Amino acid sequence: MTVQASYAVPEMRRIKCIHFIGIGGAGMGGIAEVLLNEGYQISGSDLQASAMTARLQKKGARVFIGHQQDNIQGVDVVVVSSAIDPENPEIQAARAKRIPVIRRAEMLAELMRFRHGIAVAGTHGKTTTTSLLATIFAHAGKDPTFVIGGLLNSAGTNARLGSSRYLIAEADESDASFLHLQPMVSVVTNIEADHMGTYEGDFQRMLDTYIDFLHNLPFYGLAVVCGDDPVVMDLLPRIGRQTLTYGFSEQRDVRATDVRHGFNHSLFRVQTNNGHDFEVRLGLPGKHNVLNALAAITVALEEGLEQQAIVEALSSFEGIGRRFEYLGEYDTGKGKAILVDDYGHHPTEVEATIATARSNWPDRRLVMAYQPHRYTRTRDLYEDFVRVLSQVDVLLLLEIYPAGEAPVEGVDSKSLCRSIRQRGQIEPVYVADVGELPGVLADVIEDNDLVMTQGAGNIGNLAKRLQSLQLNISQMQTSGESN
Fold this sequence. Notes:
Residues 120-300 form the Mur ligase central domain. Keywords: ATP-binding, Cell cycle, Cell division, Cell shape, Cell wall biogenesis/degradation, Cytoplasm, Ligase, Nucleotide-binding, Peptidoglycan synthesis. GO terms for molecular function: ATP binding; UDP-N-acetylmuramate-L-alanine ligase activity. It is an enzyme of class 6 (ligase). The protein contains 16 helices and 21 strands. The chain starts with 16 loop residues before the first strand and ends with a helix. It is globular. The protein has three domains: 10-102, NAD(P)-binding Rossmann-like Domain (Rossmann fold, 3-Layer(aba) Sandwich); 115-315, Mur-like, catalytic domain (UDP-N-acetylmuramoyl-L-alanine:D-glutamate ligase, 3-Layer(aba) Sandwich), CATH 3.40.1190.10; 325-479, Mur ligase, C-terminal domain (Protein-Tyrosine Phosphatase, Chain A), CATH 3.90.190.20. Helix 5 crosses helix 9 (307-315). Strands 8-7-9-6-10-11-12-13-14-15 form a ten-stranded mixed sheet, with helices on both faces. It has a six-stranded mixed sheet with strand order 16-17-21-18-19-20, with helices on both faces. By secondary structure, it is an alpha/beta fold.
């Protein structure tokens, strides 16, 4: 084995082959790609083939479709995501052979151990903020290693092995595994109730876990936090590390003023307490993305990057896959409609997406096809979903995407439809299966509509298929291409 990167983990010299269970996921596949490029032998399994598995196979990974005990022959360590059932046959076989089984974040922590780690945590905005950081550092000539939970369009990938000491990555709070990370800089974008099963329904326990994450910083490390998030600010006295705040308020260390929003972009002025004052054109719309950019700017300035490089990188930013991604204009048979795809699946994220859509296309009717993600999230945030989803003009509500969860009694999209209907603002349409969506869309879309496919499940596959085939929606229905 030849390890190619100067920052490879020397203590992992006895490890030759690393196996990933759930290798098709963005986070898992990203780490696998970095390790491939470092020279390790990579294998992995997933329930279905995907663009990620195809990419990794092309780069030399062995990928198995389906989980079987024989898949782990010859491996030295097994990496699993939190979505994998502990009874998975590959996990059971690994334990029987005394092969180490570790979580994704543990492997990410090893990659970060001998690098200058920058970890981005928070309920919302992690992927965008991490992507902006990776773009800025690359444009400034720092050649960072990065692992992102979405496709960075400019790089054509969600992970890359760089030659510098910098590693920029998302920190996953969903299973509290971000506690494995020991970065030099930690970002917290915001904190809301989500993944509460991990924290046994105790929000205070979640807050304490964020504090533990920040305490993983060395005493000379830096916490960069959103000063406009009241929950984050309540934690400030407990952080116990050097801290910089960002936001719109004059009290923040780094702040945005004179904010203006245009079509698919934002304009604002950055001012800091240590004298920086410059204009930024961000290639992303929405107030929430201005905050994400401020987080990235704060880190970049603190790391000594040139102001001009920051401005140029943000202006040329090409976006991230499935984050308010414009997929084109389509002839529906009744006229032209715009299609936008978005990954957001928490009420706050969906509401921000709706606000951005209204700002970009104020005169268009907003048709949203929404696929709820996880039974527990739908249950825990039920009333918020009812309120937010009532804000669109036409709602097509798909059944809940389980993401490996068992059904929760009384929690389904039919119930959600009834509650939205009772609210009295719109008449939602229930869609039992994502394969039925093209036909339903063909019935409801009108000329000049804005159609949004929204959610973290397999609804994104349908949106991409609409884009790649360049067919109108009614053709999709009749040609049988509606999976």
